[in-house]
Write a structure and sequence with these properties.
The chain is α/β, with parallel strands linked by helices. It has helices spanning about 40-50, 70, 75-85, 100-110, 115-125, 140-155, 170-185, 200-205, 225, 230-235, and strands spanning about 5-10, 15-25, 30-35, 55-60, 65, 85, 160-165, 190-195, 205-210, 220, 240-245, 250-255.
């Protein structure tokens, strides 16, 4: 079982960001982490990637506690970094090589993986980046940078992807293309964060709903159970309730917030 999370809490500075979050993720799960902006989705993904340590609770990866001791063990760290790949919401933080080709090759080279050039060619093609291989990443548009960052993650051929708002900044055609690519990679375990209800059903078969303020998950189950539950969407902050009175009766309307 890749991740087991028990009663996890996290603080950033003097602010509680997550509180008493528990779940497990098994191999080949497709999970959507849903919640409003600021509810702790990014922090949770960073904890799962070993970049942030929780303030309380237990986190295990494949049976081993994912803590400073594990991550300072060179053999475990190399295995973990080759198996788990994290797409930052702000991909500028991930792109620092002189060319797109070097960017895609960076992870495989760092990990000493074989066939680096073949990986660069394969994943540049998968994400439509072949024409930019000799260009500096910083010259590209936001959506192009995201595609390069995704190609770089895929080039490591990880087992588990942590994707923070992966469709943000992509045009509709490439958002659909990314969903197709993920659906074709059936061997992958994928945890995707989003606040965009319109893509939830396409990105996973299971939804974990974070509350707007630190606390336990509001929901953990199939997408239909949340998309059809207006009260749950209101509780999460993803929708709000309108009431108006008309000739002695009260009508309640729900409005789902527009995604970015």
């Amino acid at each position: 079982m890749p991740f087991i999370v028990e009663h996890l809490s996290a603080r950033l500075g003097d602010r509680d960001v997550l509180s008493d979050v528990s779940f497990s993720i098994t191999a080949k799960d497709r999970v959507v982490l849903l919640g409003i902006n600021g509810c702790g989705k990014t922090t949770l993904l960073k904890i799962l990637d070993g970049l942030v340590q929780p303030s309380a609770g237990v986190l295990r990866y494949d049976g081993r506690a994912l803590d400073g001791t594990a991550l300072s063990d060179a053999a475990f760290r190399r295995r973990f970094r080759s198996e788990v790949a994290f797409l930052f919401q702000n991909v500028d933080a991930m792109l620092f090589n002189p060319t797109v080709a070097d960017e895609i090759a960076f992870g495989p080279r760092q990990l000493g993986l074989p066939d680096v050039e073949a990986r660069v060619a394969r994943y540049a093609k998968m994400f439509g980046a072949e024409a930019w291989l000799e260009r500096p990443p910083f010259e590209l548009s936001g959506g192009e940078k995201k595609r390069v960052a995704l190609a770089a993650l895929f080039a490591v051929e990880p087992k588990l992807l942590l994707l923070d708002e992966p469709t943000a900044g992509l045009d509709p055609a490439w958002s659909a293309q990314l969903v197709d690519i993920l659906n074709q990679q059936t061997q992958l375990t994928v945890l995707t964060s989003t606040h965009n209800l319109s893509v939830v059903g396409e990105l996973g078969s299971r939804v974990m709903l974070l509350p707007p303020h630190p606390g336990r998950l509001l929901y953990d189950g199939p997408p239909e159970g949340i998309l059809e539950n207006q009260e749950l969407l209101v509780a999460s902050g993803l929708a709000h309730r309108h009431q108006h009175h008309h000739q002695g009766s009260t009508h309640v309307h729900f409005h789902v917030h527009d995604a970015e």
